[in-house]
Amino acid sequence: MNHKIKSLSLAYDPAQGLRLLDQTLLPSQVSWVPISSPEHMIEAIQSLKVRGAPLIGISASLFLGHYSLSHTPSQTYQVYEDLKKARPTAVNLANNLNSCWQNYLTHNNDPQFLLQKAIELFYQDQELCFAMAKQGVSLLNSNESVLTYCNTGSLATAGIGTALGVIKQGFEQGLIKHVYASETRPLGQGARLTAYELSQLKIPHHVICDNMAATLMAEQLVTKIFVGADRITKKGEVANKIGTLNLAILAAHFKIPFYVVAPSTTFDFETSDDQKMVIEQRNQSEVLGIWNNSISTALNPAFDITPPTLITGIVTENLISTYPFWA
Ligand code: MRU
Questions:
Q1: Across 197-209, average pLDDT
Q2: What is residue 271's predicted lDDT score, i.e. its pLDDT?
Q3: SS3 sequence, the chain?
Q4: How remote is the CA of residue 189 from the centroid of ligand 1, in Å?
Q5: Percent of the chain with pLDDT over 90
Q6: How far is the CA of 144 from the centre of ligand 1 (A)?
Q7: What would you measure as the largest C-alpha separation in the chain, in angstroms?
Q8: What residues line ligand 1, using a CB cutoff of 6 Å?
Q9: Nearest residue CA, atom 10 of ligand 1?
Q10: In DSSP terms, which residues pair with 181 in a beta bridge?
């Protein structure tokens, strides 16, 4: 197996280890950081140097695989446990680490098998992205003007992305003429990261403040909405970046199709109906910092949950499901 890997946001080779494109500095600075220790990997995940449900799982798994080459099984086990807790909402992190760990155990703690599984997950995600895009493009008519939220592209996956993958392919096939990238406060993944990817691909777009979405919809400027997901339950509840629920409610009001695009690796059919998803609460400085406001306190939940009744369809690599989804 070829052990060298490179995507827009991640690079791995056995000599240099894992390197990540620091997403906190985009779009003004393109800077790669080597990840040298477990603490560093956890910091990169928590500070959102690396982010997006699929990419967090993939990068943590590659790090663990590389770490296991030069550490004992018990040291590796400790890091596996610590990494799983780095961010709580996206299911991919724990799922990917669990499947790498399982492969390691099945092969007598041979680290090559842990690394090999992590590399497989990277390539699998690239294929999943293409398959989702193929499904999603089938929903498009001509002259679409779509709105998207947060960043769900190559900065969030190993491939072309989930929701943004559909948009990229839709543009390439001449079906999408314009994209609205909603800013995504507080950390601006839409304004910074989606804008970066769209600019690189020369896809015509406007960045909008999150509170402009309703007006655009009222003026019939948005024909469809595509977003990603961090965790999807059996009931079809979708945890995604805070603000996704606002858009889903607006879309229902204005009768605009609202699609969630996510691979089956983002599904969590184990969380039972009465178990609550854990929503990450982040530091208030992310909300207050840009205003230099040191006189207030702020709330900062990182994700919200959109109920299935507000979702027109969930696009996966295999099919497009409509409500009641898998019930
Ligand atoms: O906090 P982030 O930037 O990791 O949040 C990312 C999102 O909410 C994405 O929409 C989701 O992970 C899907 S990415 C393909």
A1: 98
A2: 77
A3: CCCCEECCCEEEECCCEEEEECCCCCCCCCCEEECCCHHHHHHHHHCCCCCCHHHHHHHHHHHHHHHHCCCCHHHHHHHHHHHHCCCCCCHHHHHHHHHHHHHHHHCCCCHHHHHHHHHHHHHHHHHHHHHHHHHHHCCCCCCEEEEECCCCCCCCCCCCCCHHHHHHHHHHCCCEEEEEEECCCCCCHHHHHHHHHHHHCCCCEEEECHHHHHHHHHCCCCCEEEECCCEEECCCCEEEECCHHHHHHHHHHHCCCEEEECCHHHEECCCCCCCCCCCCECCCHHHHHHHCCCCCCCCCECEEEECHHHCCEEECCCCEECCCCCC
A4: 9
A5: 94
A6: 24
A7: 61
A8: 48, 51-54, 90, 150, 152, 156-157, 162, 189, 228-230, 240-241, 302
A9: 228
A10: 148, 207
What pLDDT, on a 0 to 100 scale, did the predictor assign at position 2?
65
| pLDDT number for residue 274 | 60
pLDDT, tens only, 247-269: 999 999 999 999 999 999 999 98
CA separation for the pair 231, 123 (Å, rounded): 21
